[in-house]
């Protein structure tokens, strides 16, 4: 194999869960902190969700390693069980003796409750962790809720951590599970690694394998981030195959070409191939249309497939599900007689429908009832900003947003801004919006006619020491937030970060320079719009906006 060729002590990118290679990104540490905080509460359920391969099990195992000695934990890896089988498995994990033949739900429940009482009297906490919890049946979840009914005046005797894919969130929205959902004391949705974290992840694993030289160049890492979408498991597959390819071609450094070649073997042709918009970009560039490409976000109806490109991450439509009429509609400006605006407006009256689309740009499939979008956003670690102002000011924030429009009868309708429109000669003359399931271009006159300056934006606010979102940083803020501000400003201004003890004159001056660059009022420190710009990771693919 290639280990001897590159001077590695072992294979660094195995998909086996080796604790020596544990990499805890900022997101993983936040997830761990949320789980720890939830267990520190008086009890109930704690929820951790994330896409396949994002590191949920890694976080849970790290949590197990950090549990205090006065804790007895049961870990269930295969939850595809009936209620009786689940209770029997819990008994096995907690070393509860019971009669294997003829055991009933009542018998098993009584045994578990007896054990919980004994643990409590002995000063022991009892924790149940269920991985792949999206596979749990509704009646099994209800049985779990009944187990947590045993409690003292101050805490529940059983704490449950549910770990699963995003479908788990949808499952818990069922009306018959609302009592369980109300008992969730902490929840965290684990997002994939961004581009910077992918580079750190690769370097970390190479360092553990005692690598003495850089094995991946900058473009290779960017391509790995693009193809893996920041999912550690896929990063491992790509890196392993790319190193094998470099060994086969007698190369010392992995480049973009090797990564692309490895992607066909590691991910399959369908996942690694370029989509139509990537293949056509070269032709547009030759025609002088590259600027238009960078201004346009493609988003059409149908079954959505996610495609990632370095600093150009967008959702595009599954062309097989588009109709000719839809394609024609999306390509034409507002003045086209093909658009029936009465139908478009009437189909776009629902704010929850528009907000659901906004969530999708954050790679979140939300099934909750969305009459209170900001409350739901907070549960996904997103902050909600209700914008009031001009479109140029909103565009400077560089976030997707749901706009509230008012028709001639004074009735509201909603659309999601997708970007500037190439249907117009100037980027300032037209915009692309999604109304319900239709993507259309509108001109500036149409926009100014219907918009009255209201929009909602989701963003990821920085957190304080209590993991609460922060919407402003000034001289009176805690030192860790002031240092965070200095670090973020240094990244944006491409300068070395300083270690600060207070918000000194230099930091204030650099903050004002940054705010003047974007036309933001800086009279009261760093408020929401400043923090939104500092935390913006569109260039790293989160959220998806162009």
UniProtKB/TrEMBL annotation:
Entry superkingdom: Bacteria
Pfam families: AAA_22
InterPro entries tied to this protein: AAA+_ATPase, AAA_22, ExeA_AAA_ATPase_DNA-bind, P-loop_NTPase
Ranges where the AAA+ ATPase domain occurs: 42-196
Organism per entry: Thalassomonas haliotis
Protein name from the UniProt record: AAA family ATPase
Family annotation (PANTHER family): GENERAL SECRETION PATHWAY PROTEIN A-RELATED, PHOSPHORIBULOKINASE _ URIDINE KINASE FAMILY
Annotated signal sequence range: none
Organism classification: Bacteria, Pseudomonadati, Pseudomonadota, Gammaproteobacteria, Alteromonadales
Coiled-coil annotated residue ranges, if any: none
SMART domains recorded: AAA
């Amino acid at each position: 194999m290639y280990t001897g060729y590159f001077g590695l002590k072992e294979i660094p990118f195995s998909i086996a869960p080796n604790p020596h290679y544990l990499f805890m990104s900022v997101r993983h540490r936040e997830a761990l902190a949320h789980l720890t905080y939830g267990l520190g509460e008086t009890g109930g359920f704690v929820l951790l969700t994330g896409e396949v391969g994002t590191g949920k099990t890694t976080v849970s195992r790290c949590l197990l390693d950090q549990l205090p000695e006065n804790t007895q934990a049961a870990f269930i890896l295969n939850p595809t069980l009936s209620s009786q089988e689940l209770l029997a498995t819990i008994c096995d994990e907690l070393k509860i003796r019971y009669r294997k033949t003829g055991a009933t739900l009542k018998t098993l429940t009584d045994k578990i409750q007896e054990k919980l009482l004994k643990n409590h009297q002995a000063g022991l906490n009892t924790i149940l962790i269920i991985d792949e919890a999206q596979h749990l049946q509704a009646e099994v979840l209800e049985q779990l809720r009944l187990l947590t009914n045993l409690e003292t005046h101050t805490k529940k005797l059983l704490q449950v951590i549910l770990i699963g894919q995003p479908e788990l969130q949808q499952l818990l929205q069922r009306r018959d599970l609302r009592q369980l959902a109300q008992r969730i004391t902490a929840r965290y949705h684990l997002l994939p690694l961004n581009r910077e974290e992918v580079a750190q992840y690769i370097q970390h694993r190479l360092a553990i394998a005692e690598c003495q030289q850089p094995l991946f160049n900058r473009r290779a890492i960017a391509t790995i981030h693009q193809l893996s979408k920041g999912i550690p498991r896929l990063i491992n597959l790509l890196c392993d195959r790319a190193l094998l390819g470099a060994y086969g071609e007698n190369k010392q450094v992995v480049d973009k070409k090797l990564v692309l070649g490895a992607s066909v073997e590691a991910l399959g042709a369908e996942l690694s191939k370029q989509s139509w918009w990537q293949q056509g970009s070269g032709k547009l560039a030759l025609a002088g249309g590259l600027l238009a490409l960078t201004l346009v976000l493609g988003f059409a109806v149908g079954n959505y497939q996610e495609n990632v490109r370095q600093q150009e991450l967008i959702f595009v439509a599954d062309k097989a599900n588009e109709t000719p009429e839809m394609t024609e509609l999306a390509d034409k400006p507002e003045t086209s007689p093909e658009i029936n605006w009465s139908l478009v407006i009437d189909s776009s009256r629902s704010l929850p429908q528009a907000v659901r689309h906004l969530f999708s740009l954050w790679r979140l499939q939300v099934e909750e009832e969305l009459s209170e979008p900001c409350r739901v956003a907070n549960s996904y670690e997103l902050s909600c900003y209700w914008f009031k102002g001009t479109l140029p000011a909103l565009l400077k924030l560089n976030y997707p947003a749901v706009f509230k429009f008012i028709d001639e009868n004074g009735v509201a309708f909603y659309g999601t801004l997708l970007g500037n429109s190439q249907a117009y000669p100037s980027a300032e003359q037209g915009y692309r919006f999604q109304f319900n399931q239709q993507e259309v271009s509108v001109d500036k006159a149409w926009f100014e006619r219907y918009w009255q300056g209201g929009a909602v934006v989701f963003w990821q606010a920085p957190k304080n020491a209590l993991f609460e979102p922060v919407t402003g940083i000034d001289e009176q803020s805690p030192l860790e937030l002031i240092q965070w501000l200095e670090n973020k400003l240094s990244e944006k201004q491409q300068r070395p970060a300083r270690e600060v003890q207070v918000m000194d004159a230099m930091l204030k001056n650099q903050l004002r320079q940054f705010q003047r660059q974007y036309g933001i009022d800086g009279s009261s420190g760093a408020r929401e719009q400043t923090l939104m710009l500092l935390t913006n990771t569109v260039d790293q693919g989160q959220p998806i906006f162009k």
